[in-house]
Amino acid sequence: MKWVTAIIKPFKLDEVRLALSELSVQGVTVTEVKGFGRQKGHTELYRGAEYAVDFLPKVKLEVAIANSLVDAVVEAISKAASTGKIGDGKIFISSLNEAVRIRTGETGETAL
């Protein structure tokens, strides 16, 4: 099993969710986060004063998947979240040792 974490632009969330739904991926957790990478934030003008926005709004998606779905999920997220511009985000893949469904006690991939 794998744990896939993707940091994407907020306005791409619906497209990514649809792409994952087409793969029958269930159980996605979404968190609103702030951060920066190569963008290093930007400067905005508000009421005549200039100020720096160091952390940009992003969305973090987390999903536990079977090993057989890793390539398809990464490709789906990459295509759906891509704008071709800086700040599109990152995908991180980690090993997942165990999963337990609380309601039924199922373990492993059957718990996903």
Task: Tell me about this structure.
The protein has 112 residues and is of the alpha+beta class. 20% of the residues lie in helices and 37% in strands. It has 2 helices and 6 strands. It has a 4-stranded antiparallel sheet with strand order 2-5-1-6, with helices on one face. Strands 3-4 form a two-stranded antiparallel ribbon. The radius of gyration is 17 Å and the shape is elongated.
What is the gist of this entry?
The protein has 112 residues and is α+β, with helices and mostly antiparallel strands. The chain contains two helices and six strands, in the order E-H-E-E-E-E-H-E.
Q: Characteristics of this structure?
A:
112 residues, alpha+beta, Alpha-Beta Plaits, four-stranded antiparallel sheet, two-stranded antiparallel ribbon, 2 helices, 20% helix
Shape: elongated
Overall pLDDT level: 90
For the largest sheet, list the strands in their spatial order.
2-5-1-6
Head-to-tail CA distance between termini: 9 Å
Q: Would you count the extended β strands for me?
A: 6
Which ranges are low-confidence, i.e. pLDDT below 50, for 5 or more consecutive residues?
Answer: none
List the helices and strands and how they pair.
Layout lengths: L1 E7 L4 H10 L6 E7 L6 E5 L2 E5 L2 E10 L4 H12 L7 E7 L17
Antiparallel strand pairs: 1-5, 1-6, 2-5, 3-4
